Amino acid sequence: MATLMEATAQADYDAALAADLIANTQLSTWEMLWRTAQRVPDNDAFITGDVHISYRDLASRSLRSAAALAEMGVGHGSRVAFLFHPNPDWAVLHYGLARLGAIGVPINTSYMAAELEHLFTLAQPDLLITVDRFRDVDMAERLSPVAAQFGCIAETVVLPLDDDGWVAPSAERDRVYGPDGGVELEPASEVGGDDPAYIIFTSGSTAAPKPALIAHRGMVGAATGLQHALGLVPEDRFVASNPVFHTGGIVWNLTMPHLVGMTSCLVGVYETGKVLREMERSKITVMGAFDTKLTMMRNAPEYHTVDRSSVRKCNVGATGSFLRSVLPDWNWETVAQVYGSTESGGLGSITPRCETDPKVRYDANGRPMPGMEFVIKDPETGQRCAPEEPGEICFRGWGTFIEYVGMSEATAEAFDDEGFFHSGDYGFMDEAGNLYFRGRYKLMIKTGGENVSEREVEIFCEDNLEAVKFAIVVGVPDPLWGEAVVAFVELHDGAEETSDDLVEACRDQIANFKIPKRFFVVEEEDWPLLDSGRPDRHELRARAAALMGAEGETRLRFGDGAGGSQPG
Q1: How many CA atoms lie less than 13 Å away from 66 in the CB half-sphere?
Q2: Range list of H helices, 299-387
Q3: Residues 156, 141: contact at Cβ < 8 Å?
Q4: Which residues on neighbouring strands pair with residue 201, listed in sequence order?
Q5: Domain ranges (residues) in the chain
Q6: Tens digit of pLDDT for each residue in 155-189?
Q7: Could you give the percent of the chain with pLDDT greater than 90?
Q8: What CATH class has 448-567?
């Protein structure tokens, strides 16, 4: 039960956040940057390597790029596809497009021909801009033949990179960014928070990626929530390494720090050692991570050698048990759990800074922000669920995406008559309004006539099995049960439990139909990962099907790309 003082603090926090959200969600990301540049012009907007770029300089470069892009015919509503890595040139393009009211279509750097065709077919971009190479891959050679098939793409501009990963001086660079000292567009813009800013393709972890049309308000609102939850100030420094083709990269790398006037320390493509070294070099105060990245950090040599003590604030996505296990390694004063998705503009709920209950702070996925309404509904009846009763997480409000571009039927199916977006996520809300995400409904296993949430069993394994450090649960076809519950687990150092040991440890702690039929042990370096850094469930499901047919020991390890196994 919250005390009167705690209730007052929560009310004051909510009122201040609500007021800022009402004001900030009216802004475009460009207007947001321009206001910050007037307020703190000499603050560093970026540090990348030894290069410092002030807010004054970033705004000037963005207006010069906007003028150059306008000369190319880019205007309000134009769709500009681009392939970039996280560097300041990308940020300038981002704000130049925002000033014009153009819609960015970021391309996943790992996409191949079929995936590119899917993106171009649905997004229908007018212009394609790409760096000439990425990780020694000729991106022009990969993209140009596919783009040539689409008449909507009037032109492809290939930007050469220098050895430091910046766009090198060239005629192509001048066309996109304008020549040094060139004309700048006027800063005044008619673009507002309701205007579309991006077509972001969903991760595609459970289905083909869908193109979500995101408004400026969603990203600026998400940044506002982060500002309040973490207590961000202009003196803060954020270590930025998120990919540019997800909302996380746009919100965390750019919008969050640039709303506040703090510094985004861009380290380029994510490399664990590089990120850790940047924490010491730039005296980073703010970080964001989820369980996979935190595990990668913990296993890196630099984890034990660099000074990370300056990092005081962290937003995180992880189970409560995992989060508690890493807390002793860090000097965090503020930790905020989050729930978000592409369709929520990157963030829908976040732990309030004034939250004092450690169970809520670590186990819940935050509290919905003012103006973002969350309800839990029964996916079969559509009726609202009572507190603590699990169902489908549904939401509406300023962060909600506009539509799936080119997919009118999918858009209509995603919203109900009350205007709530049905996320396909499984979870519940408590009496106090805190949200608990517990997996994807598409990640439900139908076993023996019962529904089992993969995420629920994962959290159980991590919270209740002493040997288990990390778990991923999948369902595989089974002639008796329809589907069998199977768990891949990473064990704590020194643990030697077999599959039978772990099955037995589950007895009388969880319903029998939820207990995995088999546990497969995975070494930390052997998890198959998506580009986002999260485990690839499609690959694990395929491996589970193959391993369940294997003979021999029930404690199996795997590590090769084909999913082979050997006795443990």
Answers
A1: 25
A2: 320-326, 358-363
A3: no
A4: 211
A5: 30-41+54-180, 448-567
A6: 999 999 998 889 999 999 999 999 999 999 999 99
A7: 72
A8: alpha beta
